[in-house]
Amino acid sequence: MSKLADHNTLAVVDDMLRATNAHDIDSLVACFADDYVSQWPQHPARSFSGTEQVHRNWSQMFCAVPDLAAEVITRSSGPSGSSAATASTGNRSCCGAPSSS
Predict the structure, then answer these.
(1) How far is CA 47 from the centre of its chain?
(2) Which of 56, 64, 82, 98 could form a disulfide with 9 if both were Cys (CB 3.0 to 4.6 A apart)?
(3) What's the structural domain count of the chain?
(4) Is residue 11 in some structural domain?
(5) Beta-strand (E) ranges in 8-99?
(6) Is the CB of residue 37 less than 8 Å from the CB of residue 99?
(7) Which whole-number Å values give the CA distances from 68 to 31, 53, 57, 88, in the listed order?
(8) DSSP reduced 3-state for 90
(9) Collapsed DSSP state (helix, strand, coil) of residue 24
(10) Could you list the residue range(s) of the whole structural domain that residue 14 is in?
C-alpha cells in the first residue's frame, strides 16, 4: 500500500523535508512505500526498488553531505493532483572529513 493512501501528496513532501533537514533516516524512509521503485532511464544501472535501498542511499547522502538542507520552492494542488519543487543545499565531505576537492 502506498504511503499516499494515508496522506496527501503535499503532507508527504512536508514529512520528507522535516526528516531530511533533521537527518532522521527512519522518518525519511517511512515516507516511502515498501514497493517504491526508482527508475533512471538514462542510467538504468542506478534504478532500484524497495525501502532498504532508500535507507542505504540516504544514509550515504547524510554522511557525505553533513549539512544537507532542503526546502520547498513551489507547491501546488488542484483537481489533477499535487506537486512540489524542492531545492537542496550542502557541502560535500567524505563521511565527516572535509573533501579535498
Answers:
(1) 15
(2) 82
(3) 1
(4) yes
(5) 37-38, 48-49, 69-78, 81-89, 93-94, 97-98
(6) no
(7) 18, 19, 14, 7
(8) coil
(9) coil
(10) 3-91
Specify the residue for cell string 508527504. 12
Residue 96: inside a domain: no
CATH (domain of 7):
3.10.450.50
Predicted model pTM: 0.79
Residues 6+ apart with CB under 8 A from 8: 77, 82
- Judge contact between 85 and 74, C-beta under 8 A: yes
**Closest C-alpha to 90, from 7, 25, 23:** 23
Residue 98 lies in a domain: no
Please say whether the beta carbons of 62 and 91 come within 8 A: no
Write out pLDDT tens, residues 7-63: 578 889 999 999 999 999 999 999 999 999 999 999 999 999 999 999 999 999 999
Q: Which amino acid is at 16?
A: M
**Which 3 state secondary structure label does DSSP give 74?**
strand
| Confidence at residue 10, expressed as pLDDT on a 0 to 100 scale | 85
